[in-house]
Amino acid sequence: MALYFKVHHGLIDGRGFVDLFRRWFGTEAADRQVRAPWNVLPASKPRPAKRAAALNVSGVASRFTEAGRSLLSLYAALGRQALASAGLTRGTPLPFLGTPGALRGKPSVQRSFAYCVLPLARLKAFGKQHDATVNDVLLTVLDLAMNRYLVERGRKLTDPPLVADMPVALGSGEGGGNSIAVLQFPLGAAATNARQRLGQVMQRTAQLKEHVRRTDASALMIYTAAVHGIPALMEAVRVPRAPMLATSVISNPFGMPQRLYLAGAELEMVLPLSMLAPGQSLNITAVTYDQGLQVGFLGLAVELPDIGKLADYTIAAFDELTASSELSTPRPRMPAASRKATASATQQRRPKRRAHERRHLGAR
User: Fold this and answer.
1) Buried b / exposed e across 252-289, counting CB within 10 Å, b at 16+?
2) Is the pTM of this model over 0.85?
3) Fold of 67-97+109-326+334-363
4) pLDDT digits (tens, 9 = 90+) for 335-362
5) Cβ(220)–Cβ(245) under 8 Å?
6) How confident is the model at residue 12 (pLDDT cuts 50, 70, 90)?
7) Is residue 175 within 8 Å of residue 45, measured between CB atoms?
8) Domain residue spans in the chain?
9) How many helices (H) and strands (E) in the chain?
10) Helix (H, G, I), strand (E, B) or coil at 320
């Protein structure tokens, strides 16, 4: 049985949606209670009654002060980005500058979809060995996979690094709404090997975290709306060769660490299908579930008709990255669920079905 759940991104962000999943499903198979997603939404906080008479002068002044602080923080952040783009300092560069033209597809309503599952325990162990986060390792693996895919399509090793458009949580997201900023940063150089690429990704995610720490949250949300509005405007007026903001959106909104059940039925997979904003041809979203990191690839069908390759190349890239750092102690035999996690969707259950039905789903 499959459940398809669709919600507008303006109502809830990725982390909030994962928290909703945790409340929707139970952790015990014996729990036979039937719940619906709208039954487990967090209670909204009551809004204070509006004053009909006197104008709250102090409140208005406070809002003006907060708005001024956000603008100053935004200008300061753009200044730091300009210095980084000019090579005068290290840091997060300005958007649209230096983004390669890879995966530039014409707007279309047709989508292609594929997925794979990475073994979470091995991914965490490798990250711990190299002082890297799960996100650092995931970004490196995806960068390797995307570069392999694009090299087959003519990408040169001298081309600029691919650019990730990554959501950054600014709050818990549990109360609904969109409490995120979406920021851009380059990945690894095209000609680097897997280990060098990991080092570059770690350096750039550290710079991104520093950028977020030094910038007001409201300023980051203003920035997000502004830079993503430009591709939307270019698409609306049909500009054929508009500057690209990023190669792909890549997000990892945490997940569910244990097996979940709904009315006694076991949840086997949680496949994230995110969205493609104007100017984007590829969205990659990862969700942790039990022993696996489940990665969904959503693309423009006209630009990525063979999107299943990206899922396969992600598995191969993970093996390439971890090949020379296998733990010296023998690994215990993994349970069936973990063994399945090392296979791409082409190798998973229901072998009588055709491979492309399992890993590569097209939709209109």
Assistant:
1) bbebbeebbbbeeeebeebbbbbebbbbbbbbbbbbbb
2) no
3) Chloramphenicol Acetyltransferase (3.30.559)
4) 444 333 334 444 443 333 333 333 545 4
5) no
6) confident
7) yes
8) 67-97+109-326+334-363
9) 9, 10
10) helix
